[in-house]
Amino acid sequence: MLDETIFITGGGSGMGRLAARNFAEKGYQVAALDVNEQGLLETAEFHQNIRTFNVDTTNYEAVAQAVDEAETKLGPIRRVYNAAAIMPLGRVVDQDVEVFHRVMDINYNGVVNVSKAVLPGMLERNEGELVNFASLAGWVPILYMAAYNASKFAVVAFTEVLHHEHRDSNVNIVCVCPPPVKTPLLDQARDTVWPKVFDQGAHIEAQDVLDAIDATIAAGELFVFPGKGTRMAQRLRRFLPNLIWKNVHQTEGF
Ligand SMILES: NC(=O)c1ccc[n+]([C@@H]2O[C@H](COP(=O)([O-])OP(=O)(O)OC[C@H]3O[C@@H](n4cnc5c(N)ncnc54)[C@H](O)[C@@H]3O)[C@@H](O)[C@H]2O)c1
């Protein structure tokens, strides 16, 4: 058994769960954080080296305590997956103001909390990888996604600055920007509003995202754009935003 720890938020579902199991099977100690206790139990089933933490990432004190406990009981944190998020969709006028605050609190402030709590130790050891999950939605805004888009744009900006502040260290800071991935997160769109543009491209597998993260870390790069055409979509938004908006309006019908 390795004595390095992989620290994963959103470890009770989707990509966080898959990452937790993959690393556990490779012999790492895994600290899996989530607010979904049942999800955590399922993630850790059959894996003795996955330790679960029922922690809300919006609570900085609780996050810092989990970091401390993981490092003391399991070993120094080698890699972090900041994957906790929510995605309720809707038009701005239709969503309660609390939803905007909650989305920003989990998707952005949670990432800040974990980054702040794990970085001092990683920088002191001068090794490790901090993987923050943004989204292609952190580059391309579309109808119904104002709250989620804004939170992911914030993660992109935060992580880009952090990466450059530590470019001379051995700590790799990475920002993941996937298109739709086949995980339970998409059910939140199904339960609120399903943008028709989600049906335009293929939805990719969670493992493809994790493989792309490994490749980006190995290359020492900042941004991960998993999936065919994802980087192209990001470039299209940058250079021809009206083309994207034209398609979005036509597809959604308003
Ligand atoms: N699935 C996609 O289509 C997609 C696309 C691009 C980016 N992403 C991003 O990838 C990351 C992983 O997403 P996923 O698809 O695996 O989602 P998921 O819904 O399967 O898992 C997210 C987990 O985060 C947990 N969570 C929510 N709020 C929390 C909180 N306050 N504290 C702790 N845990 C909390 C949920 O309980 C859930 O278990 C997210 O940041 C998401 O925004 C997902």
Number of helices: 9
Uncertain ranges: none
β content, as a range?
5-15%
Give the integer mean of the pLDDT values.
Answer: 98
Please tell me about this protein's structure:
The chain is α/β, with parallel strands linked by helices. The protein has a single domain (5-252), classed as Rossmann fold. It contains nine helices and seven strands. It has helices at residues 14-25, 37-44, 60-73, 97-125, 146-165, 185-191, 206-219, 230-239, 241-252; strands at residues 5-9, 29-34, 50-54, 77-82, 128-133, 171-176, 223-224. It has a seven-stranded parallel sheet, sandwiched between helices. Helix 1 (14-25) links the parallel strand 1 and strand 2. Helix 8 crosses helix 9. The longest helix is centred in the middle third of the chain and has 29 residues, at 97-125. The chain is globular, with a radius of gyration of 18 Å. The termini are far apart. The model has no long low-confidence stretch (mean pLDDT 98). The protein binds nicotinamide-adenine-dinucleotide. Nicotinamide-adenine-dinucleotide binds at residues 9-10, 12-16, 33-36, 39, 56-58, 83-86, 106, 110, 133, 135, 178, 180-181, 183-186.
Descriptive terms for the model:
254 residues, alpha/beta, Rossmann fold, seven-stranded parallel beta sheet, 50% helix, binds nicotinamide-adenine-dinucleotide
